Amino acid sequence: MTSEEKELHIAIDGPAASGKTTVGKLVAKKINALFFDTGLVYRSATWFLLKNGCALTDSHEVMSCLEKMHLTLQNNPETQETEILINGVSVSKELHLPNIDKHVSIVSAIPEVRQLLTSLQREIGLKGRTVLVGRDIGTVVLPDADIKVYLKASAETRALRRFEENQKNGIESSYQDILTDLIRRDQIDSSRQTAPLKAAADAHILNTDDLTADKVAERILELVNG
Predict the structure, then answer these.
(1) pLDDT of 3 higher than 50
(2) Nearest to 140 by CA among 164, 162, 163, 118
(3) Considering the entire predicted model, what is its pTM?
(4) Domain containing 165: what range?
């Protein structure tokens, strides 16, 4: 951050596969800000729990298991990718596998898990110029963010995006399975007791069904410059 650049905190929320990560990276690059996908923290916890055979439905066992997880982040300013290390081992390439997709909403719905990981997200989000994306950034993690955006898209549109993304990355999946899983995750995310998925009262709501990522980023940049 140069001396001419002011601190700026942007919160981008929305359901799974609504385009948050793609849009967030575009915005962060344009305004020379740190990009962070907070969902990676929950995915990392899910990966660790599954890897160690912990019972996801037992919150006490989950928290006991997570005591053994040491999570560190490494940011690459050139690629804007956040490298996730668990106990010194990089797990970033495994965090978007279908099995993680299937279980991450269960883990992130546990109040104790959200409390544990929210403080880490907030610490990152308040450093200089940042763009954070997730489910509860504008409502919980950064309630005083300078700009709050909530991205909406139909489950069908989001399922198609995720299916095409999986194809591009060589991950086997079916559109119907993805659609079913997204609908299930939406229900879990929006109905959980702690920090449910919802737009902040002062968020700018953008429907991305018919907008490219570039167009959505342009809309957000207009808010920044306006």
Answers:
(1) no
(2) 118
(3) 0.84
(4) 8-210
